[in-house]
Structures are given as C-alpha cells and as structure tokens.
Design goal:
Elements: E1 14-19, E2 28-34, E3 48-54, H1 68-77, E4 81-86, H2 97-111, E5 118-128, H3 130-151, E6 163-169, H4 179-184, H5 195-205, H6 224-230, E7 234-240, H7 246-258, E8 262-264, E9 267-268, H8 286-305
Parallel strand pairs: 3-4, 3-5, 5-6, 6-7, 7-8, 7-9
Antiparallel strand pairs: 1-2, 2-4
Helix pairs in contact: 2-3, 3-6
Length: 306
C-alpha cells in the first residue's frame, strides 16, 4: 500500500485557461494538470491515459488543487495525466453551469489530445462530494451533448474519446431528499458539515429552483437506459460509514450492479464525510491510503485492459 504525502499546488505540472463552450453563460476557467514523471509536453508517440477530476465544496467553495493528494496517488502509481477542473462556482454560477464547464473541459481535452499526448480512449472521471455528484452528472450531460453534436453534424473534427471508468468518493445521488431526511437515513451519522453551511450550499447552487428529479442533480433517479448509455462498464464508489449520503449512495451502487455495471469500492468504517481531506502531516492516514490505492488499482486495471 502506498502512502501519499500532503501536497497542494506545489505539485502542479502546468495550467491553462479554456472557454466554456457548452454553457449558455459565456466565460472561461482553469485546468490544472498533474503529470507522471514519464510525461513530456513535447510531441511524442507515447500517449497517456486521462483522468479528469472535479473537486468538492458544495458547488460553492473549493478549488481544483484541493485534490492534489489524490492526484499524486494517481500520477505516482500510473502513467496517467490528471486534469483537475476549476469550474465556475455558485451562487454566481448556479446549476447547471458547473456541470457544463466540466463537459466543456472534457471536449477541449479530447480536441487537444495530440497536443498533450493523451490517449483519450482511456478517459476516466473522478470526484469528491459535490465533485462526485459531478462525475455522474457530467457523464450524463456529456452523453447528451455528443448526441446533439452528432445529430446536428457539428462534431467539427472532434476526436471522440471513450469514458472507461468513474471514481466517486462520497458523492450525492438524490437531491429530492431533504438534509434532515438524509441525516435520519444513517443511524451512525458522524456530523461534519454544519447545517447552516449545508443550507448555504443548497440555496446557492439551487436558487433558480431547478427540477430536483433531473438526472443532472439526482443521478440515482435517472432511467435505466440513460445510466446504461452514459456510464462506462466500470466504476469505483468509496463511501463513508458516518455520512448522511451513505444510504442513497449504497442504493445507487446496488442499482448499478443490477444494471450489469462492475462497481468496485467499499464503505470506509468509522469516518464521516470528507474524512480523507484532513491534514495528516507525519501521522499519515491509513484508511485514506487504502481507499486511494484501491481506486488507483481499479483505474490501472481498466486502462491496461482497454
């Protein structure tokens, strides 16, 4: 089992700013790249798998470098390039703008794959908390956007990649339940985020009153056919035993398995939401390292089999 030290922006390999081409709200945002030691930006026949990451923070706070420790786990154990998306945040940019930014990032990376030596037939997504919800939502929205572009004959030479794995750390799947109902669903709840902050997140992201049954908000309510079409065959779900999101996430895991998806991962016992984000310094965090190692092995297994 590897041990992943605490890192932040000091480990970023390079960055770039790109336009949001999918959103109806014009703007741009940053991509932060973490690359393995074998990577070179100069043209090369060596192509690298691509992991696109969506950070957490209740859709309202947080930054693309928040998952630097996870990026280090991936880039130190695989040959993949890790691109973390600094999508625009609520309340200035409420649902679904962040999702559309992330879809724009996927399409941009696919379009510029040769420039960055990326093997886009080995594309995967990862995300934590709100970013975990984005993993599901972006997969669905990407599927919809590709269908639209094909129907309107607007691919414009885009090289279409292949989504081969999703890695979700404690992501929400059902926005139709209230926070009180989510809390009540877990008798072993370990409160982490103050209720007032959760209220701020929800009101900021949802202030335009979208339909909470939308699969882009509640992927757990998406149709079977949409999940079959939009999701790859392999996923990883790491959930927290003390999380208010545990019940809905485990229901979704069961449903995806029933649809024939291979779902790796497990429930981390004795921890609450976001347990892996706390600074550990020299103490380390065995549970975090075990979860990251499993997720990396799942990614590597898919990448080497494609």
């Amino acid at each position: 089992m590897a041990s992943y030290r605490d890192v932040r922006d000091g480990e970023i390999s390079f960055t770039c700013k790109i336009p949001s081409t999918v959103s109806s709200v014009p703007g741009s945002f940053d991509l932060l790249f973490y690359a393995p030691s074998s990577y070179s930006k100069t043209p090369s026949p060596k192509k690298h798998p691509l992991l696109i990451n969506f950070h957490g923070g209740g859709f309202t706070i947080g930054h693309a470098y928040d998952d630097a420790r996870w990026a280090t786990a991936v880039t130190s154990q695989t040959s993949a390039v890790f691109a973390s998306v600094e999508y625009r945040l609520a309340p200035e940019y409420p649902f679904p703008i962040g999702i559309e930014d992330c879809v724009s990032a996927v399409l941009w990376l696919w379009k510029h794959a040769d420039e960055y030596n990326l093997d886009i037939s080995k594309t995967a997504f990862s995300g934590f908390s709100a970013g975990g919800n984005f993993v599901y939502a972006v997969s669905i929205r990407l599927n919809q956007e590709l269908e639209r572009l094909k129907k309107e004959n607007k691919l414009d030479g885009l090289k279409e990649g292949k989504l081969v794995n999703l890695v979700v750390f404690y992501g929400s799947t059902d926005y139709t339940e209230s926070r009180a109902e989510k809390d009540a669903s877990n008798p072993n709840l370990i409160p982490v985020i103050p209720p007032l902050l959760l209220k701020l997140f929800d009101e900021s992201y949802l202030y335009l009153n979208p339909d909470k049954t939308s699969p882009l908000l509640s992927p757990g309510l998406a149709s079977d056919q949409l999940l079959r079409d939009a999701f790859p065959e392999s996923l990883v779900m790491i959930n927290c035993a003390g999380d208010q999101l545990l019940a809905e996430s485990e229901i979704f895991r069961k449903r995806l398995k029933e649809l024939g998806k291979q779902v790796d991962g497990y429930v981390v016992e004795g921890v609450g939401h976001g347990w892996d984000k706390s600074p550990s310094f020299k103490r380390g965090n065995v549970k975090r390292d075990e979860a990251y190692t499993l997720a990396v092995k799942s990614l590597e297994g898919v990448w080497t089999s494609v």
